[in-house]
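TA notes, week 10

Several of you asked for a full example with nothing omitted. So below is the full record: C-alpha cells for the whole chain, then the designed sequence directly under it. When grading your own attempts, check the secondary structure regions first.
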C-alpha cells in the first residue's frame, strides 16, 4: 500500500474568500483534514475554511490537535508529538492528510512543527496562503515597501533591543504577535520617534477586525494574540 501525502495548506488570515482555489480543492477532496484547536475544540483555521467544508465527503476524517494556550514550549511540543503520531497513522494507511494553517503554512505557521516531525518519512507538499502581513497592507491600502526601502518582520516576543534596532535601522517594520507585548511596543515606538509611522490591526479579515491608523487611540494594555503593528515611513520617495 502506498503512503499518503501530507499537505500544509494556508487558509489566509481570516476572510474565507481569501482561500486559494488549490486549497479549496484539497480540503474538499481530502480523506483526512487536521488543524489546531483550543481546549473547547474550536479551531480558528477550520472556522476560516468553513465554506470549504460544505461539500466534503461524508467519510472525511478530522483530526483536531489540542494546543494548550501556554508559553511553555514543552506542552506545545507534546501536542505536536501527539498530533504528528495521529497524522502518521493516517499517512501509513495510505490516506492523504491536509493540515489547515492560518495565514501561510511556513510563515510563523504551526505546520512547520509538524513538517519537521513527518517530512523524513512521507511525501509533503505546501500550498501557500495569504499572510496577515499582506492582508494588513491591503486593509491599510499602504505599500509595505517601495524602491530602496528596507523591510523587516519581527515578533513581539523579541527583546526590547531587537525591536528597537529594527525600528531604528529599517524603513518598514511589521511586529507580529503583538498582543502580550503591546505596552512594550508602544514604549519603543515612542522612544524611537516612530509613533506617527505606526498603525495597529487586530483580527484582519474577520468580523471583529480593528484598524487603528493612529496609535494614540490605543490603550496601553495587553491586546489579543491576533494583532500586529505596521510601521512605514510617512514621507516616501516614490520616484
Amino acid at each position: 500500500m502506498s503512503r499518503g501525502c501530507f499537505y500544509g495548506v494556508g487558509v489566509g488570515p481570516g476572510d474565507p474568500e481569501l482561500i486559494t482555489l488549490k486549497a479549496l480543492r484539497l480540503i474538499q477532496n481530502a480523506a483526512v483534514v487536521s488543524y489546531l484547536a483550543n481546549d473547547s475544540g474550536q479551531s480558528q483555521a477550520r472556522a476560516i475554511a468553513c465554506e470549504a467544508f460544505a461539500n466534503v465527503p461524508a467519510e472525511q476524517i478530522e483530526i483536531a490537535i489540542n494546543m494548550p494556550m501556554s508559553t511553555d514550549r514543552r506542552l506545545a511540543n507534546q501536542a505536536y508529538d501527539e498530533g504528528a503520531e495521529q497524522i502518521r497513522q493516517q499517512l501509513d494507511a495510505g490516506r492523504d492528510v491536509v493540515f489547515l494553517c492560518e495565514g501561510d503554512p511556513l510563515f510563523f505557521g504551526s505546520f512547520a512543527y509538524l513538517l519537521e516531525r513527518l517530512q523524513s518519512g512521507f511525501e509533503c507538499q505546501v500550498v501557500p496562503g495569504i499572510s496577515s502581513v499582506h492582508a494588513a497592507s491591503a486593509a491599510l491600502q499602504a505599500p509595505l515597501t517601495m524602491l530602496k526601502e528596507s523591510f523587516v518582520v519581527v515578533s513581539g516576543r523579541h527583546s526590547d533591543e531587537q525591536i528597537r534596532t529594527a525600528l531604528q535601522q529599517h524603513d518598514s517594520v511589521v511586529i507580529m504577535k503583538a498582543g502580550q507585548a503591546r505596552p512594550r511596543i508602544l514604549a519603543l515606538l515612542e522612544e524611537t520617534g516612530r509613533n506617527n509611522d505606526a498603525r495597529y490591526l487586530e483580527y484582519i479579515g474577520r468580523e471583529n477586525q480593528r484598524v487603528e491608523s493612529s496609535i494614540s487611540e490605543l490603550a496601553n494594555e495587553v491586546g489579543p494574540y491576533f494583532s500586529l503593528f505596521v510601521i512605514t515611513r510617512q514621507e516616501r520617495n516614490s520616484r
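Helices lie at 21-29, 44-48, 73-92, 111-118, 132-140, 160-169, 182-191. Use that as a sanity check on your answer.
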